[in-house]
Amino acid sequence: QVQLVESGGGLVQAGESLSLSCAVPTTIFSTYRMGWFRQAPAAQSRELVAFITEDSTIYANAVKGRFTVSKDNARSTLYLQMNNLKPEDTAVYYCKANSPVTTGSDYWGQGTQVTVSS
To answer: What is the average pLDDT across 54-64?
Structure first.
C-alpha cells in the first residue's frame, strides 16, 4: 500500500513560519506530480495550495509570495515552506501524488494540522 507521510504541522502565532514535509515512496516520487492541498475547519472540500507540474509550479492566490513548494529528489520528499502565516491558513494540510496516467490512482497523505493564532 502506498503511503505518503506528512510531518511538521503545529501551532504558531500569526507572522511566524512552519515547514511541512511529505515522505513519498521513491517509485511514486519519481513519476507522479506532487503538491499540497488543505482543508480548513468547516470546509467541505480540500483546496489547492501549491502544485508542481511538468513545467511550472502553481500557487493559490492566497499563499503566493508566502509559501514555497519544493522537492528533494535524493530524499524523495516534498516540502512546503510557509512564511508569514495568517489565521486563515489554519487547516489540515495534505500532500498529494497525481498519477501520470488518467487510469492510474492518485494518493493522499494522512494530513497534518496547522493552526495559526492571531
So the answer is: 95
